[in-house]
Predict the structure of GntR family transcriptional regulator.
Amino acid sequence: MSDPVTGPESPATGGRRGTRPKYRVIRDEIAGRIARGVYRSGQSLPAQRELCRDFGVTLMTLRQALQALSDEGLIVQQPGRGTYVTPPPASYRLSTLRSLTDELLSQGIDVTTEVLRVELRAAPQYVTAALRLDSDARVLRLHRLRLVDGTPLVHQVSWIAPPYARAVHDVDFSTTPLYEALAEVCGVSVAAATETIRPGVLSAALAPLLRRRPGTPIFLSDRLTLAVDQEPVVLDRAALLGDRLQIRADRVTSAMSLSWDLTS
């Protein structure tokens, strides 16, 4: 009897003794359909039970194949919503003072901000050192989550130095960008920023917020923003999903531009 996935003695699988695991064959077939445009970028895949009937396999085998595709970044599985082909990349240029949110919005990508907490408080030592503050200074801690097409992408904590901290405390940061608030409320214009990005893994504390498993690859970004007088204004620390972002460098003879590629 012929196997719907591998066939009885298919040369492609080397016969029964050399047959590859069924889930790998399914993975290759779905990847091929994505490459050929049968399943287009951003499109949902058929329901899992429909795919099981298509390939003649159990739900467990199909899910192994989908997990392999997800691990490779070809699909995105959204619990309760379905499975989608990874959308096309978008770029975030690190060579400008624009934020990741501003860059993605300028490309027509749906980015929303969820404000988790805003509070005036004492800051950790690394924050007071970076912002050149006394240890007892009161700063504004702005805790936000950035979502792309409704899916969390970035967890961000911003520390705003006094005297600006109190001035922007009541701003609605779900709709007003921080730099815009500093300019309009405080008359502060940012002039420069230094940013350090390093690889890391998602902590157990942040995993529920970003809807990923602890240990998922992430990028950790520390960014210090300076005003025109070179005084520190904001220190940002962000966790960016490493399974959805990659850094790309465009080099020419006289310059280099760095950008993020949004892979899902």
Q: What stands out?
A: The chain has two domains: 22-85, 91-262. Residues 22-36 form the longest helix (15 residues).
